[in-house]
Structure formats: structure tokens, C-alpha cells
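Sharing a chain and its predicted structure for anyone who wants a worked example. Both blocks are below, sequence first, C-alpha cells second.
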Amino acid sequence: MKMVSSTDRFKALDACHQQILQYLANLTALLPQLETDSNSEQIRKQVRVIEAYFSHTARQHHAEEEKSVFPPLLLSQDAELVQVVHTLHQDHGWIEQNWLELSPMLRAIAQGEDWVDMAELRHTIEVFVNLCNEHITLEETLIYPHAKEQLAAELAGRAKRLAQ
């Protein structure tokens, strides 16, 4: 099994954020079509891809953040930073809860079922998209820069110790 370096891990996390944003945009753009033609095989296929992405990759992304990004930041002496990390952890829970409401509707549409209430779907998608966008913005503007600085300092310390 190949070891993933910490810097590669951040590159992967950053790339995943970009993918999440693209899938959110795709979901938002797809909504008007869902309201008018949810029986289209092309639309069902797009919904299937979006649902699979958020059910697997996005969840794994949050788990990775919980495991490798958040814990070192929680040790910070900066109370505001620690509070933001706790907020992001709570966001993961809200995003998951919202996803548990949204995913069955998307799976039903992907399978050609017709029980989904479109007004409820629209509302749930809007909430999910807003939660994810705000969450990513907070991570990228505050948490990731701190985590990357912390990693750089740790790597510099290791290099210095090895040089001695």
C-alpha cells in the first residue's frame, strides 16, 4: 500500500472541494429539468452520478478531514480557531442529516420512481447546496490555511532535526 504524504493529502482534499463545488453546481442546474422531465434517462443518469458521488466520495472526504485535519487544529491555543473547527465538525453532522433526507429522493428519481414531491426536493437541494458551500468557504478561508501552516512548520522541524 502506497503511503500518502501530508502535502499530497491536502492536494487531494483541495481537489475534492473543487469536485464537490462542481457537483453542487450540476445538481442546482439540474433542478429545473427534474421539475419538468424527471423521466428522461439522461437526467436519471446525471442524478445517479450525483447521488453516488455525495453518498461515497464526499462522505469519505469529511471522514478524512475529521481524522487528519481537525484533530491537530483542536490542540491550538487559538480559541477562535478551535471554535471554528467545532463548528465545522457540527456542519458535517448537519450536511449528513440533510443528505439522509435528500439521497432517497435522488435515488428514487434515478430509478424512475414518481413519488418525489418536487417542492420538497427543491427545498432540500437548496438547503444542502447552501450548507456545503458555506462549509467549504469556511474551511478554505480559515481552517485549511492554518492546517497547511501547521504542516509546513512540522515538516520544517523534521527537516531541521534530520539535518542535525
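Comments welcome. The chain has one domain: 7-61+83-163.
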